[in-house]
Amino acid sequence: MSLLRIILIIIFLRIVSSIPDTIISHLSAELQIKIQIYFGLGNDLYDFSRLDGNYQKIIISHNISEEFKTYHDEPVLIIIRLERDLNLNLATLDVLRSYLTDRQYNDILLIDNDEENLNSYVDIRKAYWNAGFSQVLIYNSQQRTWSIKPYPYLQIRPTSLKEYIENRNTRNLMGYPLRVLVTNDPPHCFVDKDELPGSPNRYKGSIVTMLKIFADQLNATFQANPFREFRRYSTADCVQMVSDDEIDACGSIFIRTYTYATSQPVRLNRVVIMAPFGNPIEKFYYFFRPFDLYVWIGTGIIVVYIAVMGSLLHRWHFKEWNVGQYLLLAVQTLLNRELSLPQSSSGSKFMLLLLLFAIGFILSNLYVALLSMMLTTKLYQRPIENLADLKAANVNILLQTHNIRPNSVYGSSEELRERFLLVEESQHLEKRNGLDPSYAYVDSEDRMDFYLYQQKFLRRRRMKKLSNPVGYTWAVQVIKQNWVLEKHYNDHVQRFFETGLQNKLVDDVHELAVKAGFLHFFPTQTQTIEPLRLEDIVMAAMVLGGGHALAVICFLVELFA
């Protein structure tokens, strides 16, 4: 037998004997694995075909296409042979992390054919944990298995296959910190300054409360990481802090995109407009308000008709025109003055009297009654119901920098975009938080409901929420890429949504904000007698001026007729 053949047989026997058939088969059976993926970037190529043929197998020896990672069913068992070079093992991990993005909950079996080295195991296992892989089992040449105990601190410990399977989905984090970015961004998160800085009740909000409950269920410690000066942070700020491993999640709602890691979307977030409920009308417009445009046009036509018909009758009997007298007579009846009919035949007087009574007396008394009622109360503009009403009322929608990106995602129409007015953040907060009815505002529905809660005890509301939303987005939280607790948190959010607790948190946050002094009720309007003001005299002056103008017109007509 040649020396080359002997060397090949030795290499073959070494490879075959180094494959832990039993542990792979048992692990695959216990975890109901569908596909076994053998992964490694080492120089040694080996044959796994002799293993149990009941499972589909994929052998990856280089960085494959990203599209290939969706071409197999789950769950999968990743089998990796450790190399002597730590850098090569870390390079394999980088490719694996890209391959299993957002699927870090799959099990990984690391096979070590060299001598046992606990220090190396600690470095490798820490790297896998930081990459998001918590379910990792190490099997060495001495047929010993090692796993990680991450809580309350990271350590390597020997284990058995049975113990690993029982503890792989442990829900006791033993005080492990859950790092959450917090700031003043109601209703999702806000700061109660009356509470001590170290108090767990200092930070409130719908999302923060949900994260606190999640930490309690897993016996973790909620660790609040305040954003600088409690300013509202942008999506880029949150993503950067997550990437730098400063935090695990952000305590606000974000728009779901595929550019950063987020929690599982379970709820559609409606984007609505908060518009003025109806601003008071200036008093000098009250003169025209009892009748609408068509009634005024009809009244004018009737006045002209009475003047023309009376003049024609006067011309017929007395052979001369007298337009001014009959025009003044028609206007006099509208002003509810006593009647003084001109000389004419009895039939003409009777017809003229019927016209003046039906038109002048009834209309004038109806007008006076309506005007008196309006003067004793207040008139308001019609409530805005849609974008067309918003445009007709010439009301702009205030935006700040945080709203620009979301509104591009909402797919807002041109009709909506033309109403946008970009202002500084401080001005936007002052106007929106105070429900200034001079402008409209656009944001998520839960945020609008939060600020509209301030007018709970007003007799007449300042603002209203338009019924038709302008867009929908998935409500998600930014989390760490390949977060080890991602699957647990997604299950937690799903249960909150299915049981309705998520809606209860959104409703409860209003009262929490009032108790914390972050939200204040507007005082109820008092019913008091208002003194006469200059704007009330303006309307009377307009009526008087209109009468004098009409008299001048009639005089000129008589003069040149």
TrEMBL record:
Keyword Transmembrane helix: yes
Keyword terms of this UniProt record: Cell membrane, Glycoprotein, Membrane, Receptor, Signal, Transmembrane, Transmembrane helix
GO molecular function: ligand-gated monoatomic ion channel activity
Cellular localisation: Cell membrane
SUPFAM superfamilies tied to this protein: Periplasmic binding protein-like II
Top-rank lineage group of the source organism: Eukaryota
Signal peptide: 1-18
Transmembrane domains' residue ranges: 293-313, 350-375, 537-560
Record GO biological process: detection of chemical stimulus; Golgi organization; protein secretion
InterPro entries: Insect_Ionotropic_Sensory_Rcpt
Assigned GO CC terms: endoplasmic reticulum; membrane; plasma membrane
Entry membrane topology: Multi-pass membrane protein
Name listed for the protein in its UniProt record: Ionotropic receptor 48c
Organism, as annotated: Drosophila melanogaster (Fruit fly)
Record gene name: Ir48c
